[in-house]
Specification:
Elements: E1 5-12, H1 17-26, E2 32-36, E3 41-46, E4 54-58, E5 65-68, E6 81-86, E7 95-96, E8 106-113, E9 116-124, H2 130-137, E10 145-151, H3 169-179, E11 182-184, E12 186-187, E13 207-212, E14 220-223, E15 236-241
Parallel strand pairs: 1-2, 9-10, 12-14
Antiparallel strand pairs: 1-15, 2-6, 3-4, 5-6, 7-8, 8-9, 10-13, 11-13, 14-15
Helix pairs in contact: 2-3
Length: 247
Amino acid sequence: MIIKDIRIFSKNLQKNNLIVNTILKTQFSFDIIFIQELSWVTICSIPSLKSEGEALVEVPNHPNWLTFSRNLSSANDSSRVITYVNIRLSSFCFSLHKDIYNHRDISLISFFNNNNIFFLINVYSDSSQSGLKYLKNTEANISNILVMTGDFNIRNNLWDPYYLYHFIHSNLLFDIADSFFLGLSILTNRVPTRYPDNNQDSNSVLDLMFLRFRSEELNNHSIHPDWHLVLDHALLTIIISIIEEYI
């Protein structure tokens, strides 16, 4: 079996697990879901002979989705990105590569297709750009990266018509993208991806996609019309066609 198209759904949920549960129940037409800023919640208390019970903390799960996330080691190091893969793609052997990138804000996923391995990266970069700095400073020899997407928290007039300047962290982001042989994808519907909840801040474009160079099939993405104004962040969607030269 060879996969030729991958439908990806990416969104910052700002720790609202009600939304992620809704997504998992309703967006089954997508193949992969990238979530940023999810919330770890206490599922139940595990009985113990030594104490009243130990809290079992998990991220939302659903039987139709394979869940990929770092294990919770501490509250201060809980993963802020998670990847869900539709179970219909389970035969492609998706894996989370903590052996390459082990950071709360980075999710590197691989899958096999026609005896080749491909990679996808889900990123959340906070105001201090800790995730991007980690990517820049961590040596990794990775080829066949198809997509890097997520909430980068970087404004730049190259992709944000509401911003007139070149933010210094843009250089860091482009250095990383270049090292992965990825280019910036431009929205087909030029609308903001973040809507502030006050009158002082302007709309902005913070959620981006970087796609593999030299592919006519991997050249654009769009805001999902049904999720345009859910929470503050819009939803990025893309259909990736893995064309013959890559399989």
